[in-house]
Amino acid sequence: MENDGRRKFLGVCLAGATAAAAAAAAYPVFRYLAPRSDAMGAKKLEFAVSDLPEGEAKFFEYAGSSAVLVKTSAGAVVALSAVCTHLGCIVQWEKEKQDFLCPCHGGRYSPDGAVTAGPPPRALAKIPFTVENGKITVG
Amino acid sequence: MGLFKRLYDWIDLRIGAREIVKKELTGYLLPRNINEWYSLGSVLLVIFALQVLTGMLLMVYYVPDAEKAFKSVTFIMNDLPYGWLIRLCHAVGSNMMVAVLLLHMLSTLTMGSFKKPRELNWVTGFILFTLVQGISLTGYLLPWSQLSFWATTVATNSAAAIPVVGPYLVEFLRGGKLVGPPTLGRFFAMHVAVIPVIIAATIGAHLFLLKRTGISTPPFGPQEASPPASAPAASYHYESHPGGIPFFPNYALQDLTSICVYFAVFLAVVFYAPNLLFTPDAFVPANPFQTPAHIKPEWYFLANYQTLKIFPSELLGLSVQAAAMTFLALLPFVDRSAQRNPLKRPLFLACTIGGILLWIGLTIWGHFS
């Protein structure tokens, strides 16, 4: 009986040591494979206002995702996420129609990101920006 | 415990787990005088598994492109969390695999375990040894450093000494006249796809043969009774060990002990001597126009490298090596005496010790030459 207790105790110790070793090996592997936080960070980006003609859009990478700056024909600047709210495809700027089209399932958005047609459930997410001294600062 | 037993019963009912465990583990008997050297095969299996795992992890970030390879390795080493650990485990592990494989072969050699009926075990083991050398050579180029670039240049160039086909063979190996981006592509494919699959298949064959012929009895210590004389010598006979010790848990514990000892040595190198295997040239990107001084192959190729240098012609050096390797590969068919105890085989013992000393001597000479 005493022998059984000792055997059980040693078994528990061995199982604990094995679990600790497995965790010690798994943690570096998890950290190695996990997405890097600096790649996902929202760094501020600057663009010259003159680089964005009226009625045009400029796509860029922001916070690990796709974003777009639009200068409407009325001259207003808008910064939006370029990720369609339906199934995550990237929207395209249609200059002639002055709106965004998601080619995946035909969702349409106005230049300020509001849904105008198709399946998207909500508007494109807005991204904070400022315009100062001829420079657009996103983020 | 109740849940565990119910789960085990459930599996047992479907695949006969208890029968498999009895046949392959608890009922698989080994000779009573078995020693720790027999556990090196298990250590090698663990090393191979770890190499596959760390290799897969490295492939997540490594870019097999001459322009990006060095940068990707630097990124893994310096920027990724624990990237250095994964990469060092892979690099140190490859050297350890060769070292343990040499010890495994040495124990097989000294205990005469390669002899009848285990000739094929030795041959498949020898094939594994050459494959491991091949996978190490192809992997050595991948970091695309000055060291890897020029060591590969020297290593592939030695094939040029083969008459008639030599120069073409070198070009074929490199994918061009010199080591360059095409070499990286083909070495990468060989390293991550072709050779590992062949190694895995050969390990399968090696283990199958081990199970078919049975574990050999060490020639030292108390010997088991000989098989019945009526057994026909020419027909297949499985060497069982009635009255022996079960593989599980008895010898599995020895395997585990050897694996722990291996990990102690392996991790000591990884953590306390990580640059043991890297020269300063390993930290400089490959430059095809600048040959560094004193480029040497890895330690296990130093004896081959020095042999090529001491003979007046490269062809002669290659021929001597080819003859030595062929002799070693076919040893079971040359050394056919039944006696396996090295202490009762003075000529064999002298040749083995002489061969090992020669190999060590050439390695040291190659290192300092």
Explain what this protein looks like in three dimensions.
The complex is a heterodimer of chains A (139) and B (369). Chain A contains two helices and ten strands, in the order ααββββββββββ. Chain A folds into two domains: 2-34; 40-138, Rieske [2Fe-2S] iron-sulphur domain (Rieske Iron-sulfur Protein). Chain A is elongated, with a radius of gyration of 26 Å. With 139 residues, chain A is α+β, with helices and mostly antiparallel strands. In chain A, strands 5-6-7-8 form a four-stranded antiparallel sheet, with no helix packed on it. The model of chain A has no long low-confidence stretch (mean pLDDT 91). Chain A has helices spanning 2-33, 37-40; strands at residues 45-48, 57-62, 65-71, 77-81, 92-94, 99-102, 107-109, 115-117, 129-132, 135-138. With 369 residues, chain B is mostly helical. Chain B has 14 helices and two strands, in the order H-H-E-H-H-H-H-H-H-H-E-H-H-H-H-H. Chain B has a two-stranded antiparallel sheet with strand order 1-2. Chain B starts with a helix and ends with a helix. The model of chain B has no long low-confidence stretch (mean pLDDT 92). The A-B interface holds A 28-29, 31-34, 36 and B 57, 60, 79-83, 85-86.
What would you call the shape of chain B?
A: globular
Fourth CATH level, the homologous superfamily of one domain in chain B: Cytochrome Bc1 Complex, Chain C
Biggest interface:
A-B, 7 and 9 residues
Secondary-structure element pattern of chain A, one letter each: HHEEEEEEEEEE
Stated plainly, the CATH topology of the largest domain in chain A is called Rieske Iron-sulfur Protein
Q: How many strand segments of chain A?
A: 10
User: Looking across the biggest beta sheet of chain A, what order are the strands in?
Assistant: 5-6-7-8
The residue ranges of chain B in which pLDDT falls below 50 over 5 or more consecutive positions are: none
CATH class of one domain in chain B: Mainly Alpha
**What is the arithmetic mean of pLDDT of chain A?**
91
Radius of gyration of chain B: 23 Å
Unreliable sequence segments of chain A: none
SSE series of chain B: HHEHHHHHHHEHHHHH
Strand content of chain B: under 5%
CATH architecture of the largest domain in chain A: 3-layer Sandwich
Oligomeric grouping of the chains: heterodimer
* Total separate domains of chain A: 2
* pLDDT averaged residue by residue of chain B: 92
